[in-house]
Amino acid sequence: MGSINASVDFRRDGETAVVIVDNPPVNALKHEVRAGLVEALRRGHDDTAVKGIVIACAGRTFFAGAEITEFGKPPQAPSLHDVIAAIEAMQKPVVAALHGTALGGGFELALACHFRVAASGTRVGLPEVKLGLLPGAGGTQRLPRLIGPEKALKMIVTGDPIGAPEALSAGIVDEITEGDLTNAAISFARRVIAEGRPLTLVRDRDDKLIGEGFADAAEELTRRLRGREAPAACVEAVRNAIVLPFEEGLKRESELFRRLVAGDQSKAQRHIFFAEREAAKIPDVPGAIKPRPIASAAVIGAGTMGGGIAMCFANAGIPVTLVETSRDLLRKGLDRVTTNYRTTVSRGGLAADEMERRVGLINGVTELDAVGTADVVVEAVFEEMDVKKRVFADLDRIAKPAALLATNTSTLDVNEIALATVRPQDVLGTHFFSPANVMRLLEIVRGAQTSLDALATAVALGRRLGKVPVTVGVCYGFVGNRMLARRSVETERLLLEGALPQEIDAAIARFGFPMGPCGMMDLAGLDVGWRIRQGRGERAVIEDALCEAGHYGQKTGRGYFRYEAGSRTPIPDPEVEKLILETSSRLGINRRPIGEEEIVERMILPMINEGARILEEGIAARPGDIDVIWVYGYGWPVWRGGPMYYADQLGLAHIRDRLTYYADQSRGETLRPAPLLQRLAGQGRGFGS
Ligand code: 3H9
Question: What is the pLDDT of residues 411-451, one digit of tens each?
């Protein structure tokens, strides 16, 4: 309990007033915090014995931003702007003491202080764009004045935070301390007072406001972000910092913020923010269940997937044993890992010594017995049931008791694999997405006998690896690929009925996906699905015909599209067009022009329908889990909030009617609205309400 209110404490340390905010878990700037800060600043102002003020936070971080749950509710004074105005009105030095993640409104508050002292591991940033917003508490006006518009624009449009050393060299923080942060900030304030240093506010500086290079930087940063409102607003606001007086720029920033916060895109992105965190909580796993400690890992199989997974462990500082069957395959796998790291280093994404450290954490071996000491073993061998079962039978013998045993699979029955051991309670699936070291989604497949603590361990481990873990049940394709399969079926039908690959992909790209289904298949390799279909006795007429003609996708320079050597740009291919037209004609289908609206509906609505079945079967626990899977694993535009959220915006009754219409056109019974969809639509409800 603080001396001002439950969240804010005010005390004196000699001539310095120390304001400590404690609002766990991340010190969001909720109303009580803002009110307490204004009161603390008033006391600091009125007390003539106070010569300087330090603002610090208790717990794991300095303010991580505005309280997101307050958005969309009636504003409560004092606002964050009021707090900032009170800081800037102080005639005594105000020093922000930063630690943890000083983000969004929290960082903006710090920018209004006269000085900033940071603990060594601090990260600072303006991630508002990731919530479909722009910094709305002066960040777009103060940061360009502090570090120049170009650097500021990069931080604001990407939303990515920077570390304390970079912040120091950019002039964002004035001092980094390894010792006690509050004491360091108090000493800093005393020095400022003793030296009589001038109290220049960031808002009054204009020496860095040079617009040169700004337009190019803006173009470069926003080129791939079409369809999203927030990045464009960020650019506009930072441009205003260059061309408008401070107060006017601030006013425009507030207007833009108000527009975005009330808009559909930010609402969708805030939904994803909370759904992502919710996904880490499994409804029937009590919070009291503690994850098992994980100090070491093993990955079996050094192919593309296994190598990528080993990198995930190394990136998180966890030593990992990587097992292959032969020296030659192991060497190839380790070389691939090193090459991947080198590429990151050459692009400036990783320091060379850090790369060495990470590579040093990966120990390549050819004896399976070496996994015996690992706390978690991830099997990433061929996607074949018999091979996997053999590995698990061996693991049962070798792995230490209570080791987490994970199979990396995208299709296989985890229950069957678990039964190859006498400890099915320790077995679960981890469906990493390719490239495993880059993609954030991790589907954790819960087997019928997976224990609650094994599950809690996998989720905690997933988060430690920097992934977005979502727990799913056992079924063919789990959540993501099962829904994707519906889209693939419709792609094939659209092609047969009259659409061309470039039309389908253009429609889906305009919807907001980074690439369309045909381009995606070309990237993944058409032969992969072809082999799976052959094994399952299934057919996809056009895709099979393409494979038979040697069109495997980018790897052969031809798939649904043509690719010039060394290029990933899809070029419409007249031969493919001919093949499609001939196939339609052979099947007696009268081709017709298909409009963009129909293409989008027939791609998206069947996926939503499958999502409804997945929910009803309990394969996903919540509609938000499905949304998170699609945003993080399949490029669903985050500003549309995921398929189930999007469905609620469209209205389930509308979706039911459109699906019924397409099913009636005899395009397949799988298009009939799922029972859950029917029921909710009938009740006038959505998936999330
Ligand atoms: C802003 O500042 C607007 C201003 O420009 C203008 C204003 C006028 N509010 O992520 P975690 C909750 S916009 C409310 O698991 P971590 C979160 O839901 C804001 N709640 O922890 C979770 O709750 P629960 C700009 C928040 O250690 C719990 O805290 N700032 C907020 O992995 C723990 O979160 C941002 O966008 C919030 N601002 O990561 C930063 N933040 O336990 C958003 C978190 O019930 N936050 N929660 O599930 C983050 O990026 C991460 O939470 C952080 C910690 C890196 C801080």
Answer: 899 999 999 999 999 999 999 998 999 999 999 999 999 99
Mutate to test the pocket of ligand 1, among 68, 107, 260 (most ligand atoms within 8 A of CB): 68
Pick the atom of ligand 1 nearest to 127's CA. Answer: 36
127 alpha carbon to ligand 1 midpoint, in Å?
Answer: 10
pLDDT at 318: 98
Buried b (16+ CB within 10 A) or exposed e, 173-190: bbbbbeeebbebbbbbbb
How far apart are alpha carbons 181 and 97 in whole angstroms? 7
Reported as half-sphere exposure (CB side, CA atoms, 13 A), residue 580 has a value of 23
Tokens representing residue 298 in the block: 């093993």
**84 CB less than 6 Å from ligand 1?**
no
The 10 Å Cβ neighbour count of residue 585 is 11
Label residue 157 by pLDDT band (50, 70, 90). very high
Count CB atoms within 10 A of the CB of residue 204: 10
Tokens 């425009």 sit at which residue?
252
| Beta pairing class for 320-323 and 362-365 | parallel
Q: Whose CA is nearest to atom 43 of ligand 1?
A: 64
CA of 158 to the centre of ligand 1 (A): 17
Separation CA 196–CA 188 (nearest Å): 12
508-556 residue pLDDT tens:
999 999 999 999 999 988 998 888 888 888 889 999 999 999 999 998 9
Question: Which pLDDT does position 524 carry in this prediction?
Answer: 87
* CA 3 – CA 295 distance, rounded (Å): 42
Enter the DSSP assignment of 400: P
> Does 69 sit in the ligand 1 pocket, CB within 6 Å?
yes
Query: Running DSSP on this structure, what letter comes out for residue 291?
Result: P
Active site residues: 108, 128
Q: What angle, 0 to 180 degrees and rounded to 10, lies between the N-to-C axes of helices 304-315 and 352-360? A: 110
Q: Two tokens at 408?
A: 């990396």
CA distance 34 to 100: 20
- Cα separation, 447 vs 454, in Å, equals 11
